[in-house]
Each structure stands twice: as structure tokens, then as C-alpha cells.
Amino acid sequence: MKRGNSIFAKAYLVLALIFFYAPILYVVVFSFNESKSLTNFTGFSLQWYEKMFENRTMMEALYFTIVIALIATVVSTIVGTITAIGLSKSRRIVKEFVTQVNNLPMMNPEIVTAIGFMLFFSSFMIETGFMTLLIAHIVFCIPYVMLSIIPKLRQLDENLAEAALDLGCTPMQALTKVIIPQIMPGIISGALIAFTMSFDDFVISYFTTGPGVNNISIYVYTMYKRINPSINALSSIIIFVITIVLIIVNVVPLIKERGRKKYEESV
């Protein structure tokens, strides 16, 4: 009975992996297709990568996507980290209230948040464009950063900051040299989630952007009725970059840990 369950679990895992990764592999393979066909591979070619870089509209969309994602990630990570640290030293009633407010954007359907942003900007007669899009991305990224950092703060000793102050650290040194290094894994995770959410967002971006400012999600939406294999090329590059980043994020800590263990053993 147990063996049968084990086989079923492995088969289910294999099917799940195929379901998730087969479409990604399909996109990568057909980005090298010689023809426009998305079902028949006629030969290897790099023409769609060349046309992608020649497509000014697509490059502008990619530029806005990356710039907004990077700025939103940096700002939301700084604000989310400071807020989470301050919240950890606040009273319980304040913690619970802010936590509930922080969870609200994540629990809300994106369409509700998007309409809320749109009504807010239109009520104050703010012209939509790059800044409104950036502000919206920063706002909805902050809760994800805080959600990643708060559990790390809960694992810290409550007296850690006070001990650092007693040993001669200034408040800023206690923050930058004691607290932040201890919660760095949570900060990195929050930053990566914020970047992914900003890079991938469509609904909120669609309602808060203006003429001439589109990200990749909006651009792909406008092209979905027309066959454009250059989209496959762009998607393949994004997949490649994300894979490299994930490898670096996961491998570098392992290399550092091995180096630290070897140093301790040698000493």
C-alpha cells in the first residue's frame, strides 16, 4: 500500500513538473524557429531575436518595465525594511493593526486595487504616466517586502539591539551592523518578490499608466491577437536572466558557507 502511494506521489510530481515547465520549454524552442509557425518547427534561426532588438516599441516597453521594477524594488525594500523593524518595536495593538492593513493589498483582488488607484489619481487630477505607474508599483510591492522580513525579525532575540548599544554601538550602527545582517535573507527574498511582482504586473499597470508608457505585460496584451514570434524571443531572454539570478542567489550562499566551514576547520 505504501509502495503504491509512493509511486502515485512520484507520478503526480512528474506530471506537475511537466505541466509547469513544458510551456516554458515550448516558448524557448519556438523562439529559434525559422518560420512564424507556433506549432511546426521548420528550422533553427536567430531572426526573431534580431527583430526583437530592432522593434523600438518592444524595447521601450522592456526599458520601462526594467526601470520601474528596479526603482520600485529599491524603494519598497528600503521602506518595507524600515517599517518592519519599527513595527517589531511597537506595541501589540499597533502591530496587529498595521499587519492587517499590510495584508489588505495582498488579499484584495488586483482589479479592485487597480480601480482604486485609477480613481485616486483621477480625483486629484493627476495625469497618468510614468510617475503614477511607479507609485502604484511601489505601493503594492511594500506589503510583500514586509511579509518576508517580519518572520525573520520574530526569530531575533528581543535584546539584541540593546546588547549592541551597551557594547558601544550607536543606534545607526546597531541597525546596520547587527539587525540588518541578521535579517538579510528576508530582505533579499522580499526584494526578489517585489521585483518579480513589479516586472510581471498587468492589471494595476494597465489602469495606472498613460499614453506612451507601457510595460511588457501591456505590450504582450496588445499583441495577443497577432502572431509575433519576437515575443517568444523576449520571453526566452527573461527566462534566461531569471534562471541566472536564481542560480546566483542560491549558489553564492552555499559557496560562502563552504568557505566559512573550511576556514573554521583550518583554524
Secondary-structure topology with pairs:
Blueprint: H1 2-30, H2 47-54, H3 56-88, H4 92-107, H5 110-123, H6 130-155, H7 160-166, H8 171-182, H9 184-200, H10 203-208, H11 216-223, H12 230-266
Describe the protein's architecture and organization.
The protein has 267 residues and is mainly alpha-helical. The chain has a domain at 55-230: Orthogonal Bundle (MetI-like fold), CATH 1.10.3720.10. Helix content is 80%, strand content 0%. The chain has twelve helices and no strands. The protein has helices spanning 2-30, 47-54, 56-88, 92-107, 110-123, 130-155, 160-166, 171-182, 184-200, 203-208, 216-223, 230-266. α1 crosses α12 (230-266) and α3 runs parallel beside α6 (130-155). It is globular and about 70 Å long. The protein starts with a helix and ends with a helix. The relative contact order is 0.13. The model has no long low-confidence stretch (mean pLDDT 85).
